[in-house]
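Chapter summary example.
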Amino acid sequence: MANNTYNITELVGTSPEGVDAAVRNAITEASKTLRNLDWFEVQSIRGHVEGDRVADWQVTLKLGFRHEG
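The structure predicted for these 69 residues follows.
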């Protein structure tokens, strides 16, 4: 990551399958509209409970992408 400038966006990915899938879903969706994705940082992990089970995982990410000058 030498001599680059980055933009940062925050987004939330979700999945009933787990945290990893929620992260991957967020990055997959972001890559449809953002170019030069380089890194992510997990800010928080939450879950949605239905009855006595985990129904969905929610992961808040900061996603860094190279600024195009």
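To summarize the output: The chain has a mean pLDDT of 94.
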